[in-house]
Structures are given as structure tokens and as C-alpha cells.
Amino acid sequence: MAYFPELRLRRLRRTEALRSMVRESHVDVKDLIYPLFVVESHNLKQEVISMPGVFRYSPDLLPRELEEIARLGIPALLLFGIPREKDEVGSSAYDSEGVVQEAIRVIKGSTPELVVVTDVCLCEYTDHGHCGVVSDGYVDNDRTLELLAEMAVSHAEAGADIVAPSDMMDGRVGTIREALDENGFEHIPILSYAAKYASAFYGPFREAAESSPRFGDRRSYQMDPPNWREALREVEQDVAEGADLIMIKPALAYLDVIQRVRLAVNCPVVAYNVSGEYAMVKAAAQRGWVEERQIVIEILTAIKRAGADLTVTYHAREAASWLQESK
Asked: Choosing from 30, 45, 86, 249, which is the catalytic residue?
């Protein structure tokens, strides 16, 4: 075995050309999914205060934004809807004329090449802010399943390419798969938020989506942050029920979970670089404490290195532009 001075590991780091030749993990624009907030309104483009550079759009203003997203080479969007009216069962979530359903039709009419992934959860649509039907102060798992399935089918009918249940109810993947198949949508994949943790990193998203719980929290259905073996059980169960892709959320504090899941399953693994992670980078960059471009690419590379095939990230537009420049 060779030792120093014969073995000099710095030899392959001497120039950018050498470094690029032996680089082990590569982030590509095709790895990115851009989250998009749509509001039941008209002629509205409203910046999310806690997420600089992220906006909420009414469906009529989407085409101009979609053109830019497609030009950058970003292949997919993850849609979240904010309705005008909310109620205790989130009825606008599965309304065929709902805001997400309308946005899907706009996207498919203007930029059909974009893959449309839709978030399937009731939290943005209920007046109490929880991810399911509430009975006696507790989210009723089984009553919620039927509504999630109805929501997923309505998205597929509007033209969604992938449905993504994020509610963390037990059995929702199997229930949604059955409903899609029964309604002629056996070709629509399910991206399951299989390991979604009860995280403090979601704060800015809840402002953007107007989805903060009006009472209590979501710890009775989202995962406990210290657990990783439980994440594998969640993933295995969702794959067994018919999930085509699985997601870990958040990303940065759960890179170990991403890696363990990657080793455990053969289906595509998606990570969600969430709102709080984005907001921290933006705040530090605005103060000149970090170099934004370098740190964003480093974060996305870390997520890829951990084992994610795809990354949902609010940095997608900027990252896509930077990646194009570096080619």
C-alpha cells in the first residue's frame, strides 16, 4: 500500500478540470421540482414575506411564470392551493372548479411539457388547519381517507401527472391507488410523502399556504424527529400500498434518513428542501453572511449525495440559472 509522499490525494484537486472529472455527485436541473403556490383570486402576484423571491399567484398570471420555468429547463412543479373559502372538511380541495384544479388546466394549456405534481392534503382547505377531518379534537384517520382519495381523483381529472399525498394518514396511499384505478387513472403515479417529520422548519410554508393549525399541532400524525427506523417502516408500508416514488421531508436535518431510505428501496427517492431551510439561506445571504450561489449548490449537492434522485426546492429557479451558466 502506498503512503505519503508517494500517495498525494491532492493531485486530483489541483484544477477545476481535474476536480470535475472525478466528481462523484452531480446536481442537474432535471433533478429539481419547483413548488408553486396558487391562490383563488385574479390578477394577484404576492410575495411571501418570510420567503424572499417566492410568490403566490392567481391562476390567470401563471402562463408568464410558467414560460420562464420551462425556459430554465425545470421539468416539474409541485402545486399548493389557497382557496377563497375554507370549511371543516376542506370541501374546496376536491371541488372540480377548485383553485388547484383550475391551475392544472392553465398549466396544461400553456406549458404542457411541464410535469404537474399536486399536493394532496386538506390542511390548506380546512378552517382548523389540520390535515384531515377533526372529531372531538383529534384528526380522524379513516374519515379523512375518502376525502383524500376524492381530492386525488379530481386532480387527475383536471390533468395532473402525479399526485402527492402529504397528510401522513395511515392507509392513504392504498386508498388513493384504489380510487385512481377505479376511475381510469391507473397510469397516474403516486409520490408519497412517506417520511414527513413534525418539523420546526415548516414555518414560512404555513404563512405562504395559510395552513397553520388553529389548535394543537401535527405531532399525532407527522413523524417524531428522533426516529429513523420508523421512517423505514413508513416507507416500506407506502411502497407496499402502491407508492411509485417516496419523499423525505425536510431534507437538511434528515440527510441520514434519506441515505438509509435510499439503501432500503429501489423506487425513486425525493427530498423536500423545505421553506425554513430556504428562508435561513435567504436571510443570511441578504446580510452578506454567506455566498448564496455557492451555499445553495452545496446544499443541493449534499441532498443528492445522500441519495435523493429528485429535490423539491424553492431555490429551483435560481439554481437552474446557475447550473446553466456553469455548463
From this structure: 249
291: cell is 455566498
Quote the CA–CA distance of 129 and 125 in Å, as a whole number: 7
Residue 180: its pLDDT value, please? 98
Is 20 inside a domain boundary?
no
Burial 177-195 (b: 16+ CB within 10 A, else e): bebbeebebeebbbbbbbb
Cell digits for 281?
439561506
CATH code assigned at 254: 3.20.20.70
Interatomic CA distance for residues 124 and 92, integer angstroms? 10
- 11 within some domain: no
pLDDT score for 247: 96
Long-range pairs, 12-16, Cβ under 8 A, ≥24: none
pTM here is 0.94
Residue 10 lies in a domain: no
Has residue 231 been placed in a domain?
A: yes
Which residues constitute the domain of residue 132? 25-326
pLDDT at residue 69, as a whole number: 95
Q: Is 196 in the active site? A: yes
Q: From the CB of residue 2, how many other CB atoms can be counted at a distance below 10 Å?
A: 7
Radius of gyration of the chain (CA): 20
Q: How many CB atoms lie within 10 A of CB 297?
A: 17
Residues 327 and 51: their CA atoms lie apart, in Å, by: 28
- Which three three-digit cell numbers place residue 326? 456553469
Distance, CA of 197 to CA of 306 (rounded, Å) = 18
Distance of alpha carbon 193 from alpha carbon 119, whole angstroms: 9
The series of mean pLDDT values per 10 residues for the chain, 327 residues long, is 85 92 93 96 92 94 94 96 89 92 96 96 85 82 94 97 94 97 98 95 76 66 93 97 97 97 96 96 96 97 97 97 85
Q: What local confidence, expressed as pLDDT, does residue 213 receive?
A: 63
β 55-57/45-47 pair status: antiparallel
Among 86, 196, 282, 304, the one annotated catalytic: 196
Structural domain total, the chain: 1
